[in-house]
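Dear colleague,

Following up on yesterday's call, I've attached the two folding results inline so they're easy to grep. Please treat them as preliminary; we haven't cross-checked anything against experimental data yet. The first protein's sequence and structure tokens come first.
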Amino acid sequence: PKDEPMQALAEVVNRTAARGGVVIVPAFAVGRAQALLHCLAQLKQAGRIANVPIFLNSPMATDATRIYQQHCSEHRLSAQQCRALGSVATIVNTVEQSQRLNDLRAPAVIVSASGMATGGRVVHHLKAYLPDARNTVLFAGFQPMGTRGAALLAGAQSIKIHGQYVPVRAQVENLDMLSAHADRKALLGWLARLPKAPQQVYVIHGEPEAADALRLAIEETLGWPCTVPEHGASVTL
């Protein structure tokens, strides 16, 4: 999608805060969590989101955030931006602190792993907040089939957590424009810059429908032979 991710994030936070709810963000601990904190820091500084507390509840994401701050010369964020993404959220360290987040009674944002809701601390938050329609579960990346994230995005009425079925009354949103994967436009642009046309292009990663759509785009846009190999196919190069 070509939607502006900062605006989409701001709208979700503000809608949820207005109805007194909590935003639960399942996030990949390395990279995605820091990108979200960076966006939230910018939005908060610009006054574009409600002044609600933000929590980072993932030991791995906390460690990765510190690495971002310690190695500012190795990425595109400035030292000031690194300080902002490190200070915009309250870091949740202990299990007891994590458990207390499940009892919030005022608007807040909780960023926690895992990004597909398959495990980690975020599962406990989902169990606590999914039954309340005031809350929002906000995904920020692709959800493969078979994951809790995919089930929630597909409109599941309940999901199984710790052996119990939890009703889904919270709003479920997805910022899929934050995916770390290149989209079709970016992939076509990368291919077009190759010094010469390849003899054959193989699309070997992706959902079947999307893979075939990319195959067709490569053939139509670049005029190159392209195929989506069948499972188990062998090719001699």
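Below is the second protein, in the same order (sequence, then structure):
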Amino acid sequence: MLGLGIGMMTGGAPSEAWTPASLSNLTLWLKFNQNITADQDSSSSSVTHSTAAGNMADGDKINAWNAFGSTSINAVQTTTGDKPLWETDAADIGGVKFHNQIKFMDLSANVVLDANTDFTIAVRFKATDLSAARGLMGSSGSEFLRLNSNTTLRAKVNNTNRDFALASGTIATDEYFTIIIVRSDGSTGNLNVFIRGNESLNGTTTGTQMGSQLTDAGEITISDIGASFDEGTNFIGFFKDVLIWDGTAASSGDRKEIFDYIEGQ
């Protein structure tokens, strides 16, 4: 695939560059370096800063990471002590920094992944501390997705643990990774988890599978990001992208497109 606006000719028409909107049922799109606002600076004084205005400053307290594209669900935080931060270090600029164990964001509307329904979730992250479990997203102590360690992702559905462990390698705390969770086959509820990093765990273009396929077709509600639930096993590190397709199970080809798009920003 060629660059933006310059596609290969197929049947006389140029192909379009792939984006997350190319995959059907895109429900949540929190995009790297887009639609992020801060209403307090590092000293908690009121400001009006945003990525759109280009005036975000180091340590700004982020009150919103708003929906991108045609999606409408925002991530918000109004409590000063719980707000993630803006970071200007070159490796991390454009992301959202959850710098200690009390930072998280609420979704403006719950994403309810119905029982017996396919879905795909993708998160681009750098965990800077994996000395304990770190939540990626969820809604309660019985429904969440979290890194249980530097080798294992736990999906908890209807209070049942589904653990996906790397056969080899680890999730390093100085590197960005993208995790893709896919549920397929409707009421069968086949769950698979794939990970890819820029430096490690990058052996295949479609991701390294974590553990083996497990099954759970139960409903999952997502109301928070950066934690398993409000103040629960909060994430420490950075998020750069959060995406959910409610109703679509990404194929291996789709996973390659997702990984390539997110890493190529």
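For the second protein, one point worth flagging: Residues 1-12 have pLDDT under 50 and may be disordered.

Best wishes,
A.L.
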